[in-house]
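Hi R.,

Here's the chain you asked about this morning:
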Amino acid sequence: IPEHLAYLRFSWKLLLQWAVEKCGLKEDVRRECLDIGYEIFTRVADRHTHRIEGEDPVTMFFEIVGALLTQGKLRVDHKDSGYSGRLGGDSGELIGYFDDKNYYLLPVPLWHAVQTYLRYEGGHFPFSKTTLYETMERRGILETNGGKSSQTKWIGGKAVKVLILKRGKNDALRGVADEM
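And here is the predicted structure, written out as tokens:
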């Protein structure tokens, strides 16, 4: 939000300066418009900040994934036993694997499933993937390696790029796994 606010202010200032030089806008009017624009941009940024603070991206993300698993639209297979150990529906889209310690989620299908769900619901995810992954890392949910959120793991005899989410007392999918 601070970057967006700075960009808006810069652009507004540049536009008003152009209006002075090319259109004959009076300097005192330019200053008044500049102040009004800055005030409006600041108010909108403040409202947006308060809205975002009220939304927890990690909770929102896992509520959506949990709902899709419960509905059988997604599935997470056991890393070693495949189909015999599964979360979600038998015909659900595969979004990853799990074992006793971790979930190994496929970043592209996972993100696509959440975005598709939100599009059908008429909403949007208010954070980028990068922001979500950074938040999950700070909370100790996502395991990273050298600052990279996705890692290559051998699963089912092939190398797969995955997000590694830790299981345990803060297990993000525990409620869903308990229901299955």
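One quick note: The chain has six helices and seven strands.

Cheers,
M.
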